[in-house]
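Researcher: Structure for this, please.
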Amino acid sequence: MPARLINGNELSKQIRSDIAQRAAELTRQGRRPGLAVILVGDDPASHVYVRNKVKACHDAGFHSVLEKYEATMTEAELLARIDLLNHDPAIHGILVQMPLPRHIDPHKVIEAISTRKDVDGYSVLSAGELMAGLKGFRPCTPYGCMKLIESTGYDLRGKHAVVIGRSNTVGKPMALLLLQANATVTICHSGTPDLAYHTHQADVVVAAVGRRNTLTGDMVKPGAVVIDVGINRDEAGKLCGDVDFASVSEVAGWITPVPGGVGPMTITMLLANTLESAEG
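Model: Predicted structure, token format:
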């Protein structure tokens, strides 16, 4: 039986509707959620991402500030701007769009953002809070992946989850969130000699390496939940993920599409984090 589709677009709409209602109530109380987005340079993909984030804020009733700067902006100027936003009571979340121009250290920029406004969940302190199981902002993409899994009603307790990828933004926090849900977690990566050995045993697979066809149908346990985080292009220029959807969907129990799976949830959880910051 073909896998059931986990529709990120539909789940995102449901969550955003709740977010908009809560934001409206906060606004009535005089505390409208506010997100500041900073874009430095002219990376085309970044412009698209930023535009989508600003639109999502508007649709949810948030106050949003978009600041665009030339690629010649200095690191000191950017840090100074972040410091001002840290002290702006109308701003509850600060997002600096990556990548930055080469002369700006992204680590310094991330660490300059107040932890109370780190709605991307990328700072060292946010990562430490996640590691320790403390309350804090979760990186938006892994957070969205967990919501997608939860939407299926699948109980992660005692299940074996394999995360393919070890990035600080997706792979590592994804593994920690799955661990917090009482799954047994294996992290695979480019140094893993036999990926299929691990994925064959997995009840849940999260593919997040940015490489087409990393996971194929012959590598998947029948009935597994498969979450595809990858964003790639095939030979025809069509958007695709890390998972060979055609073959894996014939074996898996649940699967996310690309597009329409994880992507919509990433921005949705950014809104959720910003709302939580405003409510707190």
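Researcher: Any notable elements?
Model: The chain has a mean pLDDT of 97. The chain is about 40% helix and 15% strand.
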